[in-house]
Design a protein that fits this description.
About 40% of the residues lie in helices and about 15% in strands. With about 240 residues, it is α/β, with parallel strands linked by helices. The protein has one domain: Spore Coat Polysaccharide Biosynthesis Protein SpsA, Chain A (Alpha-Beta Complex), CATH 3.90.550.10. The chain has a 7-stranded mixed β-sheet with strand order 3-2-1-4-6-5-7, sandwiched between helices. Helix 3 crosses helix 6. The longest helix is centred in the middle third of the chain and has 18 residues. It is globular and about 45 Å long. Bound molecules: guanosine-5'-diphosphate and magnesium ion.
C-alpha cells in the first residue's frame, strides 16, 4: 500500500519543522508532500531542508485548492491512500495509525478525524462551537449518519475518494459539511475516528475577521446546491 500525506501549507515556516519531524517519528512508511500555497515566507525551503517533497502554487489559491493539488499528485503517482493533515501543528501525526486502521475495514472509503468523538480536552471558542453544532446537525440529518466534526480536514482517503476529489469542482477554501453530504450522495462510506486537536504552533488561521459570516453563508449555499444537483456517478477503478 502506497500512502501519501498531503500537507497544505500557507506561511507555515514556524510549525512545519515540528510537523515534519513528528511525521517521520510517528508515521514512518508514509511519504510526505507539502503543498506550498504561494507562501510569502520560507515554507518551501523549510520542507526541502529536511528532504520532503514540495509542490508550489505560484500564487495563493486557498486551503481547498492546495488539498486538491495534493489529490491530483497522489492520483498521478499511483498512491493507494492519501492522508490529509494541516501544516500548523493542530493535527497530531500520532493519530494517523488509527485513521489507517479504520480504512482496513473494506466497508470504509474514508476515515475522518473527529475532535468530539472522545473528550480529549479540545475547547473551541463559543462562536465556533455554535457554528459547528449547526453544521454537524445538518450533516447528520442529510447523511443519515452521526457527524460530530464536519469541519475536520484530518482524514485518510482511499483512492476512489481522492480520485473523485481530484477530478471534481472541489471547493478552493472551506472543505466542510457540504463535502460530507456530497460524499454520501456519491456513495462513499465514511467513518469518524477520535483524534486530538492542538493549538496552532504559529502563523494564523484564515477563519478570522468577517470570514465566519461568509463561511456560514457559503457552506449553507453549497449544501443546498449539492442537494439540488444530480447525484454524482462514480467510475470505480
Ligand atoms: N490560512 C490559509 N491556510 C492555507 C491556505 N492554503 C493552504 N493552507 C493550509 O491549510 C491548513 C488549514 O488552514 P487553517 O488556517 O489552519 O484553518 P483552520 O485550522 O480551519 O483554522 C493549514 O495547514 C494551512 O497552512 C490559505 O490560502 N490560507
Ligand atoms: Mg488550523
Amino acid at each position: 500500500m502506497k500512502v501519501l500525506a498531503i500537507i497544505p501549507a500557507y506561511n507555515e515556516e514556524a510549525s512545519l519543522p515540528v510537523v515534519l519531524r513528528e511525521m517521520s517519528n510517528h508515521a514512518g512508511g508514509v511519504d510526505c508532500l507539502v503543498i506550498n500555497d504561494g507562501s510569502k515566507d520560507r515554507t518551501a525551503e523549510t520542507a526541502r531542508a529536511v528532504g520532503v517533497g514540495v509542490v508550489s502554487h505560484p500564487v495563493n489559491l486557498g486551503a481547498g485548492a492546495a488539498a486538491q493539488t495534493g489529490f491530483r499528485y497522489a492520483l498521478r503517482r499511483g498512491y493507494d491512500i492519501v492522508i490529509q493533515i494541516d501544516a500548523d501543528g493542530q493535527h497530531d501525526p500520532r493519530d494517523i495509525p488509527s485513521l489507517l486502521r479504520a480504512l482496513e475495514n473494506e466497508g470504509v472509503d474514508a476515515a475522518i478525524g473527529s475532535r468530539f468523538l472522545e473528550d480529549r480536552g479540545y475547547r473551541p471558542t463559543r462562536m465556533r462551537s455554535v457554528g459547528m453544532s449547526f453544521f454537524n446537525g445538518l450533516a447528520t440529518i442529510l447523511t443519515g449518519q452521526r457527524v460530530t466534526d464536519s469541519t475536520s480536514c484530518f482524514r485518510a482517503l482511499k483512492r476512489p475518494v481522492f480520485k473523485f476529489f481530484a477530478e471534481m469542482d472541489y471547493p478552493t477554501d472551506f472543505q466542510d459539511a457540504d463535502l460530507r453530504v456530497l460524499m454520501k450522495r456519491a456513495g462513499f462510506r465514511v467513518q469518524e475516528v477520535a483524534v486530538s486537536m492542538r493549538p496552532r504552533l504559529g502563523g494564523r488561521s484564515f477563519i478570522n475577521g468577517i470570514v465566519p459570516a461568509y463561511y456560514v453563508f457559503k457552506v449553507s449555499l453549497s449544501i443546498l446546491v449539492t442537494l439540488l444537483r444530480e447525484a454524482p456517478r462514480l467510475r470505480r477503478e
